[in-house]
Structure formats: C-alpha cells, structure tokens
C-alpha cells in the first residue's frame, strides 16, 4: 500500500509542476531542495529575533508558518513515503512525522494569535528549537540513508518541488479560496496492483478514444477550407495525435499488451466519441467545433487521470509522455474555445453572402 | 581530419582559473594584424558571450543548487576566456574600425555557413541575411571615411569587397516576417546545429555591441547610422534564433553549447597564424572539452539520458574557416537581391501587394530621413565620391552601380517602394 494524494499541482501545464513533469525545467535533487528550505527558514528565525517592531515580527512569523507548512506537506505526501520505500527504514520516517506533529501544533497556536506578545515570542522560540532539532535529524540521518538507497533524487525532487509550490499557492495565492476544496482530499491508502490494472485499462481506453478522434479530425481538416486558422491548428494536431498513439502503444507494448486488445477496447468504448462527429449537416462547421472541444477535453481528462493511476502503479517512466499528451490536448481545446466566436461569425458571414 | 571531443581528455575544471596577469593579454598591433585573425577574435568573443548569457538563463530556470554551482563554475571560466579573447583588441583601434571587423566577420562567416549548410531552407536563411550584412559593411565604410578620413580596406584589406548589398533602407521589415521555421536538433544534420549556434552567437554579439557603443560618437550621422543598423541586428537575432530547436531541454542545450564551443576553438586553431593567439585557442579548446564532459555528466545524472544520443558518434569532420568569398557573394547578390520575407518564407518583393504590412512598416520607420542613405550622400559630397571597393569588376546588380554606370537601372525594391508610396 502506498499513500496517494489526488491533487499534487502536477496537472496544470502552465504551472511549475507541469513544467517540471514535462522536463521543461531543471529538476532539483530532493534532498538538496529540502535542505535549502531548512537553511531559509532557520535564517528567518534569526530575522524574527532582529525584527524592529511588532508588525515586522508578525509578518515574519506568518512567513515562517506558511513556508514550514508547505515544506511539511511535500515531505509527508511525497518525500517520506518515497524515502521509506527506498531505504526500507519505516522507523526513521515515523520519527520525522511525529516531530512534524509537534511543530504543527505550535504553528497552529501561532496562527491563531491575534497579537505578537510575550507568549507569541515564546512559541516562536520553541518552534525554532523544534525545527533545528528536526533539521539535524533529517540532514544527518535520513538524507544520507536516502542518498545511499539509490532512490531517483531528481524524480522525487520534481514531485516535491511541484507539491510544495502548489501548497504555497493554496495558502497564499490569489486563487487560494477557489482551489481549497480540491486540496481537502485527504491522503488515501491505495493498492499498487489495483492501480496497475486500472492504469493499463486506462491506457487502452485513451488509445481507443485518440484513434477514433483521429479519424474525426482528419475528416474535419478536409472540410475547413474557409477557416484557415482552425484548419492549420487541426492539421498540426493530427500529427500530435499520431505521436500520442505511438506513445500509448509503446507503453502498452512494454507491458506485453497485445494489439488486438486495443481493437476490442475501441469498439467497446469509443462509440460516444464517434457520435459527436457531424458529416453533412447545414451547420457542420459549428457542430464539429463543439465536438473538437469536447474531444480534446475528453482526452485531457483521460490523460490527467492516467497521471494519477500511473503514479500509484509506480509507472514513473510513463508520466512524462502522458504529461506531454495532456499538454497537447489542453492546448488544442483552449485554441478551439478561443476561436469559437470567430468561427461562428465567419460561418454566418459566409452563409449570408451565399444567400444574398 | 576528424576530431571527437568525447574521446579526448580536457583540463580539470579546478585547474582552469587564471590570474589577472595571464588574462590581461597583450593586444594585437592594429597595423599588423591579419584581417581574419581579427575576425576570429571577434567571433570567439561572441561565442563566449553567448555561453555566459545562456548559462545565466539556465541558472534562472534551475531549482537544484548543486547544478547551479556547477554552472557558475564553468561560467566563471567562460568569463575569463571571454576577457582573454576580447582583450586582444587594442585600445587604439577606434570603434568604427572594430565595427568594420564585425561586419567583415558577418559577411565571410555567413558566406562560409551558407556554402557548408546541408539543409536548403537553412541555406536560404543564411543567403538572405548575408546580403544585408554585406550592405552594412558598405555603410560603415562610408561613415569611416566621412568621420575618420581613412579608407576601410586599411582594416579589411582586399579580402572582402565593399559595395551595396540589399540596401539597409529596404531591410526594415515587420517583426512577424522575421520568424523562420525551427529545426529539430535530433533529426537535423549535426553541421546544421553547429552552423546555427555559431550565427546566433555572432549576430547576438553584434546586436549587443551596437546597442552599447552606438552612442559613443558625438557626430549625429554616426549615432544615427549605428541606431538604424542596430535595429537590423535585432531582426537578425530574431531571424536566426528562430531556426534553433525550441523543444530542446535545458540540458540538451547546455551539452550542445559546450560541444559547439569545442568545435569553434578547434576550428580557429587550424588557421590562426599568430602563434600566441593560436596557443590561446588551443588552451581554450582543452578547457571546453572538460566543460562538455561536465555538462554530459550533469545530463546523465539529472535527466537520466545519454548525451551521446544527441551528439554524432563521428566527431567533427570539417573546420569552420575564414576565407575570401567574393565570387559566392556576387552570385548571391545577382540572384537574390530582390527577395524579402513573408512569415517564414522568402519571396520577391515584387509579389507583395501595395497594402502589404512591409510597406506600412517601411513608412513607419523610414519617415523622410534614413541615416544609412544620408551617410552615403554626405561622404560623396565631402570626398567627391562614395567609398567602394569593387575588385572584381562593376557591381553585378545594375541598379546598385555607382552614379553614371547605373544608366537609369533601378532595383525591384526601388521600383516597388516608389509605387507603394
């Protein structure tokens, strides 16, 4: 069993998480990233000591609490489980989590305080001592054990950095309130074997949907001569879809899945997609635009859930190609949505000209 | 003559730092230096500046502090290399004289790249901008005679002809028409990748140079000429950087940059005649071999990818060389002088409709006063005639011949602009 978190901030392609997952940023070594965090927050405790007045103390205090919470979320959800699995030493991680609980109680107290006074400063000193001890334990015992274990420090570093920035965003970001619900999903224990079965099924389904959608796209491209921008985007996307199919086939092949299984899945699953296409209706261009958006969003949803299933199944090498597929479908959906008004206007203008 | 840097041993990084006394090299003598020796130094300075700027950008996109430290270490050495190379230029060489060197580099470097470019689209990309840099050399040569009273062949010798190319006044195009189609680094011929990295670095440094030193003259015509040509360098950087592979990861780019630097120093070593400068190139080549290997190691460690997968197994087969390209330049002048660009394609200017955005952009920037035209008029008025160095006969394009030799001929550019106005 491993613990899985539904929302890790790795889905949004424009986010740091997405960029990290797709290999577009240089990933950090997880232990170095966490150690950098330690240095930063220890420095802030000193800063708190030197603060000139109570408003400054309050501001630094808030900063320390938020940074520590984000750091702890990323450690507990990603780094510790990975470390326990890699080192086989569950006791070491259990100790670290217990220390987090003590720190969190102090932080909760600090965050509740209305003013900065003697009591607040006492709590802050206690927190500083608690963290200094915890840092010492981690950096001198846990991190060396993790480095020796052969764990992929950069892969875990990617996930930790993404989760940490997501947690910070939820606490202090502009959209914090709106996104709070998603993050309230508590960590849940899941089975790796179950995850693997659903992951493979999900791959087959995504393949069926993508190949069905491909046929539809090719048909649309032929009929879009009056809408050159949309035509060009769809034409480019036909190529993307070909690569997507290849990526999915490579993943399936590596699990020894036969190609005939793909055909069954296609028949079983993709009727819904096929029904969206409109061949020769009067307003086929409009209807096909809706279908194009729906299809891209449908595939994006499929890829997004595959990211979660794949991670739970331990299929780390699959995450990067799937993230790439997700980014491509999101981009197409956004493009088509942004062009819907233009397409509708052009459609009306062409029809009016033909009628007049 | 093959050379594979992955199989060579470089100088260990920690032994690459040099004291001030060694960095502060003795500059060349401006009346003795071979024009192509000056050219090699100018180009290698541009290569090192790109190395430093790229490394800073990568550092800003790197979350791992250890990788940042490695980048900073290599970058410190690259900064030292840049100082050594650029400090070869003597203080008594004036800004316009250095500028003439930059434009001679642009002409003979671009001509070599065009003739050694396997991909026909990319060759067209080089030919297109070659004619524009060729024209800049002519404009600056006239500025030189006008302001400093000397003739440009004192600097460039007779290796490169000096006469109009695609006139600078017509080079100003809308930014949308400056973006070319990118290559895919893994699928491209390795020579195409090397060529593109070379020209982007060279043009970028020319842009940096003009944007910095263009205001160092008091004469209004000099300030204005640098300003106008400086804006073309912005176009050229956009033009050339858009052929690079935008999908390459940061590590792919880092490895490619270091691999390219080895090739550059190795190439420059082959032809350099000044023994002291040749020794610098050889030393730097050995440093770059180590930089490449460190970059490869980082890529393996962080991306779990094999850098050999993106580098050719064979190593380098030809060296970039500075040579006289008079016949080649004349042939491109003759066949491509009338080209302009539309989006990422190159088309004859006569195919543009009168309401094309090219003409609107021209009207917006040229107004009723164009410095690069003015500088020719002023120099001709002062010295009786404009400055040209036509060693191989009259200009191959009748519309660009001098005064009476023109016999009423006109370029398509001149005709179309007249009609559009």
Write the layout of secondary structure elements.
The complex is a heterodimer of chains A (356) and B (421).
Chain A: E1 2-4, H1 16-21, H2 30-50, H3 54-87, H4 90-112, H5 118-149, H6 153-172, H7 176-183, E2 188-190, H8 192-222, H9 228-254, H10 259-269, H11 271-274, H12 284-312, H13 316-355
Antiparallel strand pairs in A: 1-2
Helix pairs in contact in A: 2-3, 2-5, 3-4, 3-5, 3-6, 4-5, 6-7, 8-9, 8-10, 8-12, 9-13, 12-13
Chain B: H1 20-23, H2 35-60, H3 65-86, H4 95-115, H5 120-148, H6 153-156, H7 168-171, H8 190-213, H9 220-241, H10 250-271, H11 275-303, H12 326-336, E1 339-342, E2 345-348, H13 357-366, H14 371-383, H15 412-420
Antiparallel strand pairs in B: 1-2
Description of the molecule:
The complex is a heterodimer of chains A (356) and B (421). Chain A folds into 2 domains: 189 residues, no CATH class; 164 residues, Up-down Bundle (Ferritin), CATH 1.20.1260. Chain A is 80% helix and 2% strand. Chain A has a two-stranded antiparallel ribbon. In chain A, helix 3 runs antiparallel to helix 4, helix 3 runs antiparallel to helix 6 and helix 6 crosses helix 7. The N and C termini of chain A lie far apart (69 Å). Chain B has 421 residues and is mostly helical. Chain B has one domain. Helices cover 59% and strands 2% of the residues of chain B. Chain B has 15 helices and 2 strands. Chain B has a two-stranded antiparallel ribbon with strand order 1-2. In chain B, strand 1 and strand 2 form a beta hairpin. Chain B is globular, with a radius of gyration of 22 Å. The model of chain B has no long low-confidence stretch (mean pLDDT 95). Chains A and B meet through helix 2 and helix 6 of A and helix 3 and helix 11 of B.
